[in-house]
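Exercise (ungraded).
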Amino acid sequence: MSERPGGHRDVPVLDLDAIIDDPGTRIIVCCGSGGVGKTTTAAALGLRAAERGRAAVVLTVDPARRLAQSMGLTELDNVPRPVEDVTGDGTLHAMMLDMKRTFDEIIEAHADPERARQILTNPFYQSLSSSFSGTQEYMAMEKLGQLRRSGEWDLIIVDTPPSRSALDFLDAPERLGRFLDGRLIRVLTAPAKAGGRSAFKLFNAGFGLIAGAMTKLLGAQVLKDLQTFVSALDAVFGGFRARAEQTYRLLQAPGTAFVVVAAPERDAMREASYFVERLAEERMPLAGVVINRVHRSPAEGLSAARSAAAAEELESRGGHDLAAAVLRLHTGRMQLAAREHREREHFVTAHPTVPVAEVPAMWEDVHDLEGLRQVGKLLAAQ
Amino acid sequence: MGSLRDVRARDTDWDGVRLHVVTGKGGTGKTTVAAALALALAAGGRKVLLVEVEGRQGIAQVFDLPPLPYEERRIAVAPDGGDVHALSIDPEEAMLDYLEMFYGMRRAGKALTKMGVVDFATTIAPGFRDVLVTGKTTEAVRRKNKDGRRVYDAVVLDAPPTGRITRFLNVTNEVAGLARVGPIKNHADLVNGVVASPETAVHFVTLLEEMPVQETLDGLAELTAAGLPPGGIFTNMVRESLLPASVLDAAAGGRFDPAELALGLKAAGLADGASDAAAVAEALAEEIVEHARRTALEQRERESLDASGRPRYELPLLADGVDLAGLYELAESIRNQGAA
């Protein structure tokens, strides 16, 4: 195995081509904290998989405008659109998730028209379906399930929502499911049912207190809206939690590969660590970690220390201003590289068996398909 | 002029602002800038509260402290005497506070918590959660001590990221659809009275890269459209270019002559022979061309930010990463540029 410059001898290398070429790989989930190039990584993997013969679809959640344009996506319409100019035998589709529409569709599919109308016009539904970040995670998973069941693609690459923390992505569907299926909902929807059996006596005794507090906190009208909403939704879903669990199992299944995306900075690597540990706890299949935006230098043989000393020497002597400035610049670059290397080493020490791929920093963002193709090459060239 | 304590040696761009909201795209160093801004504002004997709302314990990490409790406590001393206090707001605790403060109902609050009402607040109606969190923050802004002075000279809020900031602050609007009347609505109006006033400024943290800059401009437009007061733009992690503009311009066009550089390298004793010097110079030239292209791109990003008309401040990339010393360095830079 070849050693990367400044690399760590024993770190297993993440071979992304092997993963996308394996027909057994059906779902790749790209996750990681915000601002680390997750969406770009997902799109580049999708393009590379397609150009290597897969029928791939990339599900993105909130792509930057130019990245969307680079794949020819101009509208957020919740439908996979073919990406033009893909070479090779495969195909690439891409779509942006419209979480409200996805939610509306679930309601419409599962409720009779009258009840659907009741739900869709309720102010709580408006709030839940359009503004809660957990809904986005839930709907991304719902959409993933739909794409999987459609059987139209043999590889689905999903980019997770830009959560405050990478872990929200795993927790939110469960939280939403648990909430809609939870005790509070039971209290709100069926206070009359409580009582009778002893287990409910305590429950019932507390109810007056709770209803009183809720009314004070929210106002009577809000509580009534909420009750209406919850009972309508409850009737539709019954097993909302079961649905969340089904999605969970899909993620645990063989054929799913999690790719944790990070940047060589403390916060991003810390998030990556948490995520790696969490995936292990949940028995979800981790393929490895992609570290984006790694700074390297074409002149790596010249160390920061030597470069700094030489710059100082020239500055004190005078006469070679340009060389001195270039050496200062190089010193800074090598220091940055060293710092990034330390962040990576921290991670590797804690997770020595996790395969890692590194992608060098590029001086500008991806604008077109060719840019994505380049990123794909860099992802594969480890 | 006010009392002696209020007299400062110079004006800053944000005199009169008491609530500094700091937002930014993920990865731009929002928490670091919020912390440095709090230090800068506290300099010279003032008292500042730094608040975080997303339960990430980012403040504790930046100041190298154990996790912060839901309690205001002093965490740092500013240059020339001044205190930074910190508070990590937990929505659940904020709700209990709220119930107690307005209704004396702590026990009922605890029962609600057990029943998953916080799940409720965060799941079904994020507007409620935001009202509780911003409510706690604005309460700290308004709070006065016995002699009628504000307890804090300034409050700095490490807020949710750019994509969510307007919704987060625009609480009245957020809860309007849910609660047209009632206690939550009243509370939201109270919050709005602070957040939408000239006492508040919403600052954006960005890097000189395309995506964060675009998000900043979009965020500013959205914020302004919602009638919320925009603040300054902090461009973070700026790398200073040491090369003269003429060299950068040529290099950005792919023209950089390594011959002169090779001579310098030899003079510095970095090469054993002429061919070695040429090889190192070639490699460095490649680095320079890349650097020049990046610098040109950064300049374009600066220009698009400046077109927004907002005051802009540049914070240097810290060579050793962000540690406590680095935080003070950033605070000084913020003061030198008149942002505090």
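Further reading is listed at the end of the chapter. For now, observe: Chain A is about 55% helix and 10% strand. Strands of chain A lie at 27-31, 55-60, 81-82, 91-96, 155-159, 256-262, 286-294, 356-360.
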